[in-house]
Amino acid sequence: MDKYTKYTTEDFLADDSFIQWLIDPTEEQDNYWNAFLQQHPEKKHAIDEAKIVFGMFQHERERLSLDETYDIWNNILKTLHNPATSRWLNILKYAAILLVVFLAGGISYYLYESREQTHFDLASVPVTTSSEAKIILSDGSEISLEKKESEISYNSSGNQLIVNNDTIRQNQVTGREVMNKVIIPYGKKSMIQLSDGTLVWLNAGSQLIYPSTFQRKKREVVLIGEAYFDVAKNPSKPFIVRTADMHVKVLGTRFDVSAYPEDPVVETILEEGSVALEVVSKKFAHSGEEVILKPNQKISLNKEDGVANIKTVDVSMYTSWKDGILKTDREDLVRVIKKVERYYNIQIEMKDPLAGGYLISGKLDLKGSPEEVLNIIKLTVPIDWTKKSNGDFVIVRK
Amino acid sequence: MIEHSKGNDHELWTKFLHGNDQVLSLIYLRYVNALYDYGSKITPDHSLVKDCIQDVFCTIIRNRQSLSPTDNIQLYLFKALKRQLVREIQKSLKYREIDPDNSGRFEISFLQSFDHTEFELSDEQKKALISAIESLTARQKEAIYLRFTRGMDYKEIAVILNLNYQSARALIHRAISKLREILAGKTNYFSQILLCIFRKTGKGVLQQ
């Protein structure tokens, strides 16, 4: 610490660990510099001045949308199609690899990297087809979740987690967040208690990336798919859910976020408290704006036309999935079927596209078999269903 | 570089050189946004930046056999992107000479970036901030961008700017001294502006 007592503004800005503190402050560094300032109040002026000079160069970063990121990569593959230069290259293999990487962790990493706030080690993200439910710890080791409904809970220091009654220890690096990831394939779901006490119900076909303990000024997680959050109150550490198209920021509240990459609509539904949403994807009309949601409001972002829509809803419609119940209110059959597919991890083919437009209202109990669910739907709208030899279902209009 | 772990870079790059195809898409995803941001500071032509990023990766794949090991992928990519951008800009300005080592075209488009954000600055505050930054040379701006925005160390900045270590240090030192001169006497005014910026970017470093 002694060397800093003689530092000028220029010296501080020439010091790598000082710059690192400004770029990406951890609590440990905050404590160090606060302690330094307490011992050497005469340095406050130089440090403040250094912060101001540094701050002049902090501005909104240019970033590519997911579409653009993927387009450039596709072009890289196309250019390489030239046989003169790509004798060793198997284009299809490359395409498949990127697709898998995107599905398995690329998007999540991308979301973090774009803000440059991560220490998530990409090499530790194994390429996976996500057919198996599992937790990936920061050292790359995997814990498989065999049950249909798994429960995961972290202790407050983050070095111990309990998975379906099994206790697992993981090493903590002091002062740094270590990222863990839960992957839940279609047909399964999971409840996770994070180290701060926040409860997360992860729906089928979803992934959540989170630190085992929250060391930073903000509690940040990345979501692909759908989850219901019951966030532990901590006014000094906002909780942020990042998805490809929007960020949801709260202090302590209950809400649902649905952001499946394959769905045309991204939604956030607020049950209690208040949340601020930042629309990050440039394709939406509200891009860059902050939107405040009130309880019982739902915001939908339509990925196709870029339109955002806020309305008051019955929240239980959107959160009942965590209790194994699917509630619908004048919802298209095609969207209901999509949810049933995810829930049971089955394929349901709609023979007649027109049937997809039937509106369904009511409550579907998803605790039984998919056959039972389809029979209940059959009572509501004029459809029939059959099962193919490969186990897939087919819906036809009556 | 301060922020990314280099040890991991070496491993990724070696895997790629030895024919592991998966890691290239990982490298791409890790650096594409940093490259895009840097490129956008060199030229406002976003589609040119995207094309050049594409070319950089195509070149890497084509020359995989002859590439040397590196433990600093970001530095390698930044240098390659800059070379490519300067070459393309030169091509488009056939009749004008541009010295590739004198990146006279480097402009940090601060005005533009303020328009895109929600910084609640008055026009007067914006003007003061921009004129302070505009008092720097293009090379100083680039060096400071690499240092304060990308967190590079002097060695890395020297490589990108084709300078020796001492000159890179001196370049940044002079730039900072110049900014301090402008700040002198106006510290309160600027800290007001910057408090606003830090609040927006979520960095609490100006909390008193």
UniProtKB/TrEMBL annotation, chain A:
* Matches recorded under Pfam families: FecR, FecR_C
- The residues that cross the membrane are 91-112
Q: Where is the Protein FecR C-terminal domain?
A: 329-391
> Which intervals hold domain FecR protein?
187-275
Entry's Gene Ontology molecular function annotations: sigma factor antagonist activity
Q: Which InterPro entries does the annotation name?
A: FecR, FecR_C, Ferrdict_sens_TM
Keywords (A to Z) from UniProt: Membrane, Transmembrane, Transmembrane helix
According to UniProt, the name of this protein is: FecR domain-containing protein
Q: Which organism is it from?
A: Gaoshiqia sediminis
From TrEMBL, chain B:
Q: Which GO terms describe its molecular function?
A: DNA binding; sigma factor activity
Q: Where is the RNA polymerase sigma factor 70 region 4 type domain?
A: 128-179
Q: Which UniProt keywords apply?
A: Sigma factor, Transcription, Transcription regulation
Which InterPro entries is this protein grouped with?
Answer: RNA_pol_sigma-70-like, RNA_pol_sigma-70_dom, RNA_pol_sigma70_r4_t2, RNA_pol_sigma_r2, RNA_pol_sigma_r3/r4-like, WH-like_DNA-bd_sf
- Name its GO BP terms in alphabetical order: DNA-templated transcription initiation
UniProt xrefs under Pfam families = Sigma70_r4_2
What transmembrane ranges does the database entry give? none
Q: Which domain of life is it from?
A: Bacteria
As for family, the record states: Belongs to the sigma-70 factor family. ECF subfamily.
What is this protein's record name?
Sigma-70 family RNA polymerase sigma factor
Ranked from the top, the taxonomy reads: Bacteria, Pseudomonadati, Bacteroidota, Bacteroidia, Marinilabiliales
